[in-house]
Amino acid sequence: MEDGVLKEGFLVKRGHIVHNWKARWFILRQNTLLYYKLEGGRKVTPPKGRILLDGCTITCPCLEYENRPLLIKLKTQTSTEYFLEACSREERDAWAFEITGAIHAGQPGKVQQLHILKNSFKLPPHISLHRIVDKMHDSSSGIRPSPNMEQGSTYKKTFIGSSLVDWLISNSFSANRLEAVTLASMLMEENFLRPVGVRSMGAIRSGDLAEQFLDDSTALYTFAESYKKKISSKEDISLSTVELSGTVVKQGYLAKQGHKRKNWKVRRFVLRKDPAFLHYYDPSKEENRPVGGFSLRGSLVSALEDNGVPTGVKGNVQGNLFKVITKDDTHYYIQASSKAERTEWIEAIKKLT
Questions:
Q1: Are the CB atoms for 346 and 269 separated by under 8 Å?
Q2: Which key words are in the record (predicted)?
């Protein structure tokens, strides 16, 4: 990394005038977040824009877009709002952590508090959020939504925050209330649950990283509609469910060369095992369906030379490239954002070929 760069990588940004979503290369410095357009696998200088962090407020998680649960919202001193989407919860939290640190650089106490939050409870590897939500929907032992009143209004099919905390502990998903609150926050961040009513919505709007989910008998929550959509969508069932049933091993934004036009586009890649597949998604689209993918069984993966443009690559695209050749001899040219990231992807794919 260059001097003074705290973090860099791809994020998907909402446009200011036309609210479309585009992948941009972001570079975080002590007081500024710069973003660049990408052409031919390279960032175009000068930067397309800059976000001044002095006096900025950050909201993470930001639940303003139901189909984009991995958002960070930044609001500048001049009240300009920026919506940035990461490729995973871990990556979103890492960006939020670094950006918050840059905003509060002059307040050591705040930065120390962030370090404590960053190193707090992690979901045990044998428990998946999907499994927890499936259990929550169980008709005999799950959470039973019912009508609840708050400030004179009745909300159908809701449950109270403290009841969910009790349920997570009693079902051994959490050891104590603090862990259960963190787990409930994860479920909310990943769009399985959503806040309902004044009390729980207020906690989200406050933007306090520590107080997203309320262990409270007056805070109401419900199952997010998107969970039901995921179960009943005919389109999702028509896509090979076997392909998408594997465990996610790795995910991230990478640039990929198109097969026909040979142009380079940023895609969100998701690597799964059992069965081994590599799928890629268009981050500018809201629907969570792959635009392509292939089986890794019998595939070959290798790094490409960093000096000069390798054979098969169109345009002046150099550095951090690798190639996957599938069993049916289809060649995929992919570019990572650093040598280290390229090595991580190659090692992860090799284990599954």
A1: no
A2: Acetylation, Cell membrane, Cell projection, Cytoplasm, Cytoskeleton, Membrane, Phosphoprotein, Repeat
Where in 20-75 does DSSP place strands (E)?
21-28, 32-36, 38-39, 42-43, 49-52, 57-62, 71-75
Domains by residue range for the chain, with CATH: 5-113 (2.30.29.30), 121-223 (1.10.10.10), 247-351 (2.30.29.30)
CA angle (195 as vertex; 193, 200 as ends), nearest 5: 140
Is 221 in contact with 194 (CB distance < 8 Å)?
Answer: yes
Alpha-carbon span 43 to 4, nearest angstrom:
18
Answer whether residue 239 shows pLDDT above 70.
Answer: no
What distance lies between CA 277 and its chain's CA centroid?
A: 19
DSSP state of 245: G
This model's pTM is above 0.85: no
3-state secondary structure of 8: strand
Rounded CA separation 110/256 (Å): 39
Q: What is the pLDDT of residues 122-159, one digit of tens each?
A: 556 666 788 899 899 988 889 888 888 776 678 888 99
Tokens 């958002």 belong to residue: 71
Coil, helix or strand at residue 328: coil
How, if at all, do strands 71-75 and 81-85 pair?
A: antiparallel
**Cβ within 8 Å of residue 258, ≥6 positions away:** 264, 265
pLDDT tens digits, 165-186: 888 888 888 877 788 888 898 8
- According to DSSP, residue 243 is labeled G
